[in-house]
Specification:
Order of helices and strands: EHHHHHEEHEHEHEHEHEHEEH
Number of strands: 10
Helix content: 40-55%
Distance between the termini: 24 Å
Bound molecules: guanosine-5'-diphosphate, magnesium ion
Radius of gyration: 21 Å
Strand content: 5-15%
Strand order of the largest sheet: 5-4-6-3-7-8-9-10
Number of helices: 12
């Protein structure tokens, strides 16, 4: 079963209450439902994550909309079409020769894959071609999809909610990356899964930013802590304290957009992080960076800079429906492979502005979408 995130019970408390029936799904939306199961949820997508021992969650009241996922997949394919066609053109020839590898190198670089990931992919591909004794360029395309899926696999990891209560999630990124929208969408999924969510409007600079978050809070009937012109660290502190006092499952702090080059704003972000840690031991449990997939190699630069400043635990890559070239995920994966703390997982990707356009990242699907 597909799940939008994973819900875990905190280590201490006794057995979870009996399974509640899945909440009604809104009939119109085709979104795969957020998980609607009790705290012991261990339902997992079939792909690379090791199977968990817990029994699968009770079947949702509505059938799992596998077609919803495939509908979404076609949007992803559509979004990545430009890159895809650039890559697939390489395989329209009749021979596997050096020219093919050279063209492929150029196409991968063109797709924002970056040099280290491109070189790694090509080396891996040559090995695979040899091992498979492939003779047709079309077969090489399939082998590239496999190589890419393997490179991306470490980025695929579910967001786990509930190991701490509240689970505190801090969200950062440059202006317009899609932070507030992604928080809104995520909130919807969490609320649908009966998680009690509290939003912190830690983007205190712009009234519009607060209002935008408040709209999402209203729409999902979740609480929000906001303060006009206040100090973002103070707002975050208050929100975490309120989340604890009110027994919330999740607190999500939306921060103002900032460029990694704006040193004082990066200091402010560090301060927000430190302040959240003072409000609750072990918090923030997740520090997410939202990156616009259109920013190409600059996305990787952002990931590195924000990681150096606040220690990222996850990514949301948005706008893969636009002119995004997709290869940047390979660049992020390659960088992550050498990162001391391990790769920074991509919890979600966005392929549009609608609610169902935020989805979990699946390495194999993504590789296939890119090369379809
Ligand atoms: N096409 C597309 N637009 C998106 C996506 N995610 C967010 N947006 C749009 O990007 C714009 C900026 O989003 P916002 O959440 O306000 O960015 P923030 O400044 O990082 O909070 C809005 O118009 C969103 O609707 C996506 O995945 N695809
Ligand atoms: Mg915002």
């Amino acid at each position: 079963m597909f799940s939008f995130f994973r819900k875990k019970s905190p280590p201490a408390p006794p057995a979870a209450p009996p399974a509640a029936p899945a909440p009604p799904q809104p009939p119109a939306t085709t979104q795969a439902p957020a998980v609607a199961v009790p705290a012991s949820l261990e339902a997992e997508r079939p792909a690379p994550a090791p199977a968990t021992s817990a029994a699968p969650a009770p079947a949702p009241a509505t059938p799992e909309p596998a077609e919803a996922r495939s509908g979404w997949l076609s949007r992803l394919k559509q979004g990545l079409r430009r890159t895809g066609s650039g890559l697939t053109l390489v395989f329209t020839g009749t021979r596997i020769d050096e020219a093919l590898y050279e063209e492929l190198e150029a196409a991968l670089l063109q797709a924002d894959t970056g040099l280290p990931a491109t070189e790694a992919l090509l080396a891996d591909l040559r090995r695979r071609v040899k091992a498979a004794k492939a003779t047709e360029p079309a077969a090489v395309k399939g082998l590239l999809a496999e190589a890419l899926a393997e490179l991306l696999a470490p980025l695929q990891k579910p967001l786990v909610i509930g190991e701490a209560r509240p689970t505190v999630i801090m969200v950062a990124g440059v202006n317009g990356a899609g932070k507030t929208t992604s928080i809104g969408k995520l909130t919807r999924h969490l609320a649908q899964a009966d998680c009690k969510v509290l939003l912190a409007a830690a983007d205190t600079f712009r009234a519009a930013a607060r209002e935008q978050l408040a709209v999402w809070a209203d729409r999902n009937r979740v609480e929000i802590v906001a303060q006009q012109g206040g100090d973002p660290a103070a707002v975050s502190f208050d929100a975490v304290a309120a989340g604890r006092a009110r027994g919330c499952d999740v607190v999500i702090a939306d921060t103002a957009g900032r460029l990694p080059t704006q040193a004082h704003l990066m200091e402010e972000l560090k301060k927000i992080r430190r302040t959240i840690a003072k409000a609750q031991d072990g918090a923030p449990h997740e520090v997410l960076l939202v990156v616009d997939g259109n920013t190409g190699q600059n996305a990787l630069a952002q990931v590195k800079a924000f990681d150096a400043a606040v220690g990222l635990t996850g990514l949301i890559v948005t706008k893969l429906d636009g002119t995004a070239k997709g290869g940047v995920l390979a660049a992020i994966a390659r960088w992550g492979a050498g990162r001391a703390g391990g790769p920074v997982p991509v919890y979600f990707i966005g392929v549009g502005e609608k609610l169902e356009d935020l989805q979990t990242f699946d390495a194999r699907e993504f590789a296939q979408a890119l090369l379809s």
